[in-house]
């Protein structure tokens, strides 16, 4: 029996690690499309600003060489060219998004520790946003004995943050000069361009902090911890293949 053929398409540091794990699991991982390709794995997210596959060519060129029943895996797959294909979008997958948030938080912590001349113990740290990344990041910071403040719009989120031992404030109460380190996880304008002694790290998909001194740390897992990111992708691919009844 022929093994399932999976095409790695595009380029990201995480994909080779994912491919290695999938290969060990019995998947035939290939680099060139063919008529018997069963699954395509794209980078996560899959497209650049020009609408091309990250590290690859156009999606139109790719699909010309693939069968119509191919399964396409990736991130942000709302491209109209895929409307007649079966797709699984990892960025809409709760398991992937939650685990990726944890990896992102670890990367964000390392980003700060590489840039600050002090340890985080006893330092005042502000985390803007109470989504998946914000929660994971706050927990890690608390474990390092940082003094963590959570800033968020929703009163219910502030109540939960306070119940977990964090200082909780509204967005309107932010005074950036009070902190040594500020993380933003909210994809909306939060802090204007202003002078501040704080190290500012923006993790959001759209910039929320102004100023030339802001570190825009988008897509950290794939860049800083590609092996961890690739392992996560591979685990989800294997789970999806099992759910859909593919035989390896």
TrEMBL record:
Transmembrane segments: none annotated. Residues 114-176 form the D-isomer specific 2-hydroxyacid dehydrogenase NAD-binding domain. SUPFAM superfamilies: NAD(P)-binding Rossmann-fold domains. GO terms for molecular function: NAD binding. Pfam families: 2-Hacid_dh_C. InterPro entries: D-isomer_DH_NAD-bd, NAD(P)-bd_dom_sf. This is D-isomer specific 2-hydroxyacid dehydrogenase NAD-binding domain-containing protein. It comes from Candidatus Faecousia excrementigallinarum.
């Amino acid at each position: 029996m022929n093994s399932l053929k999976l095409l790695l398409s595009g380029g990201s540091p995480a994909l080779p690690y994912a491919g290695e794990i999938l290969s060990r699991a019995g998947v035939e991982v290939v680099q060139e499309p063919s008529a018997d390709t069963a699954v395509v794995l794209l980078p996560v997210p899959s497209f650049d600003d020009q609408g091309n596959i990250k590290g690859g060519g156009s999606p139109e060129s790719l699909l010309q060489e693939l069968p119509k029943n191919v399964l396409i895996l990736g991130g942000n797959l709302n491209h109209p060219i895929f409307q007649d294909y079966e797709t699984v979008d990892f960025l809409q997958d709760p398991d992937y998004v939650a685990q990726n948030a944890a990896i992102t938080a670890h990367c964000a912590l390392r980003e700060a520790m590489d840039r600050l001349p002090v340890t985080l113990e006893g330092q005042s740290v502000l985390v803007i946003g109470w989504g998946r990344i914000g929660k994971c990041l706050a927990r890690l910071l608390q474990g390092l004995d940082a003094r963590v403040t959570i800033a968020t719009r929703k009163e219910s989120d502030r109540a939960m943050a306070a119940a977990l031992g964090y200082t909780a404030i509204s967005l309107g109460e932010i005074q950036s000069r009070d902190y040594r380190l500020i993380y933003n996880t909210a994809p909306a304008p939060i802090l204007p361009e202003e002078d501040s002694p704080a190290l500012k790290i923006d993790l959001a998909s759209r910039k929320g902090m102004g100023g030339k001194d802001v570190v825009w740390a988008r897509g950290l897992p794939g860049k800083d911890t590609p092996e961890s990111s690739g392992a996560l992708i591979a685990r989800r691919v294997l789970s999806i293949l099992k759910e859909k009844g593919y035989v390896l």
